[in-house]
Design a protein that fits this description.
elongated; 69% strand; 0% helix
């Protein structure tokens, strides 16, 4: 089925229905090639790119140029993408992925399972800007969709300045347990110019805990933590 690209990205199609469009279309029973403002929709998978190629005999999907892939609740933006429609595994180059509320990016991102992504030498942030104000750099990032995020060998940076090192950082991605980084910037007569960062590490019914970092013009630098039970 070839149709307009004005299809709801969140709409899930019937199992055997494929919808696509592009400036140039090559379409037969098993192979689809779309060029120029290409759009392809299959089940809960929606893909936009400059060039899309799909082989439904091998279940392989490839895309290049301004790639935007949505699978379920996860969005991927990349330069290049290879994706298996059956196993829900694949890889992207020059990519950024979003799984609320986190953005994570790297030169290569691997979809190792349907609900698990791996980023080598990447960064993560809750800041939605193309060049975020603050971020975590990590040697390895594992994202379990709708469950948790784990980063290893982590450096927290604000404005490109390294402020905090953590061997491991874990964040619960379940909606009722999400907590954002709190960054405060200002000035007062006691501290002068100051930067204060609160990094929640636990937020449960009876226990809450956070790591703290403060840098002030007059009082210097301070680090620590707090917990409440």
């Amino acid at each position: 089925d070839v149709s307009s690209s004005e299809i709801n990205f969140d709409e899930k199609l019937d199992e055997d229905t494929v919808v696509g469009n592009g400036d140039k279309i090559v379409w037969n029973e098993k192979v689809v090639h779309l060029e120029g403002k290409a759009y392809l929709k299959y089940q809960d998978i929606a893909l936009e790119a400059d060039d899309v190629w799909a082989d439904f005999d091998t279940n392989l999907l490839q895309a290049k140029g301004n790639v935007h892939l949505r699978v379920g609740n996860e969005d991927t933006y990349a330069d290049e993408l290879i994706y298996n429609l059956e196993t829900k595994k694949g890889s992207v180059k020059g990519g950024v992925m979003y799984s609320e509320p986190w953005y994570y990016q790297g030169r290569e991102i691997f979809k190792v399972e349907e609900k698990e992504s791996l980023v080598n030498s990447g960064l993560i942030s809750t800041c939605p800007l193309k060049y975020p104000h603050y971020w975590f750099e990590a040697k390895k990032i594992v994202v379990h969709i709708d469950k948790e995020l784990i980063a290893k060998d982590v450096v927290f940076k604000v404005g490109g300045v390294p402020l905090l090192y953590l061997p491991v950082y874990r964040r619960d991605l379940r909606k009722h347990k999400r907590a954002r980084i709190i960054v405060k910037i200002g000035t007062d007569s006691y501290q002068g110019h100051y930067l204060s960062i609160i990094l929640p590490v636990a937020r449960r019914k009876r226990l809450s805990a956070a790591l703290l970092f403060d840098k002030t013009q007059r009082r210097g630098t301070g680090t620590g933590g707090e917990s409440k039970y």
